[in-house]
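Protein in question kept underneath.
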Amino acid sequence: MATISVMNGKGELKLRKSTSLVGIKSTNQESISQQDFVKADVLPNLGGFQVVTLEQQGHDIDTSLDQARQQDSVAVGTHVYFAEGSNKPIVATGEIYITFETGVGTDEQQIVLDEYHLEVVERRSASLVVARVTPQSPNPFKTAAALQALSLVTTAEPDLDMPMDEYAFAAPTDNLIPNQWHLENNGFVVDANFRLKKGADAHVLSAWNRLGNMGSSQITVAVIDNGFDVNHPDLKGKIYKPWDLWAKSPNLPQGDANFTHGTPCASVAIAASNGSGIVGAAPGVRFMPIHGTSFSVSTTEEMFDYCIRNGADIISCSWGTTDPRYSLNSLKEQAIARAAREGRGGKGCVILFATGNDNLNYVNFYAAHRDVIAVSASTSQDTFANYANQGVEVSVCAPSNGDWPIIAARASWDPGLSGETGNYKYWRDGRDRGSNYKHFGGTSSSTPLVAGICALILSANPNLTAREVKSILQQTADKIGDPSEYSNTGQSLKYGYGRVNADKAVAEALRRADAVQPAPVPEVTANIASGRGLFRFDVRKQAAQGWGVQMGAFYEYGNVLIQAEKLQKQFNAPIVVSINELNGKTVYKITVGAYDTAASARDLLDRMKKAGVDGFLRNLADLA
């Protein structure tokens, strides 16, 4: 497709026209998203335009836009562009900043303006004119390019708008993220003609923005399953203390076509943010793959005891049984309970089990354990996934397939669906999205999604117990479905306490972290408001680089002073305080240390933990 070159700032932009996006201004300042010719919303405001996709019905974008311009609800329609090498949409606002050559008088300037049917918005100097295109003018970018070629004109720069970067958090750029509707549902499948229900998702992207990261590298998610492709680009480099329960070995088996389930399950929870493919709900955390599911008592004890000994914070299990002949005995129940109470230094491992896909009125026997988070499934329409088992033990549901599947990692040896051929072996619609991925679903998918969200909760507040994490998930879940399906206590047999909401859950975890009262410090009077606290300190600007240990966030400045005095004395390290805004209030985040390397900060973290002070590794650049 031909490009247009225009001036922008101190350089030049080469623009290509989008083949799917357009900008629309409505005649009455209301959203046009409900109009028949609009396929989907993309951006609510860009340069005064609402960016949408159109129902093209076989037409090219030019024809479709021309047809949209004829609608009574459309005041102005414009093309959307992309700069060469960028995926950010660009819209021309319609104004052009024209600098004429010295000596070109207003009469000559007007001849140029009339030639392109431009109207003057403002004359800022004898040579600088701000002009606006009219319905008779060519496209603003084309007009600017034509003006730039005139000998009377020094520069002609079209005013344009594009989405700005928000530096609080760098969103992942993996190419399949737009397809991951379970993380953020915008109401459509980007590469298929299929409508979803906007907002029917787990609100993971919002949680990342609130948290300021995608999970702490100090949090470990164990996935117990079979068939982990350790060379998959979304898993390799993240693996921590793997274990094969069957072979009693850290070397996981590869290549057996009977075992592929672990790869997609793990990816939904922790797939890396590496610029390609998908991302998991918590791509920043560590991944502990444990191969070898088993009904055996001894193996059940081994898998959960391994997690306790090796520091698993979260244990995700997308397997089990609903066969009444094989209910759990007391030894298996005790193995799960032991991990839920003794793991994480006594705070308890967060354990999740899938309710199962048998369409029964009772759940997987493992999921029925009282210390377990039992995860059911909802669809992209925010309805119950009717394959999921129901019961009073259901904690929450999470987005999975039911009308449109999610995308997950695929083991290199995965044979795909039997009876299918070609791309249909891996993709519901036959559209190939890469050999490393496939469509996936069931409670096998919803469970690791919630496991990843639990990792975000613990990244926000690592002091939470396993029971508190379960409580937060249930307390912050969104009620979906018919309200009559929920009991007086707020629980549904289908949905549990509702569809999980990662953003609300992270917000609650942060709130609880702030609400924790600091330990008493004899040397300092805690009642700062009374004026009895007296401190001597100096303040220096800290460069946004290096590593430290973040140990808390506080709303009250008095608590910041108390903690800073205590920590500096106890660990002989500088104290860095980051001042931010959260929910309209000022929040102070305390980080101990400012080291050049993560290894030095990790040494400090070990010292702090031995002293009974919790914290997590923090890149100071993330606090800026």
Summary: The radius of gyration is 28 Å.
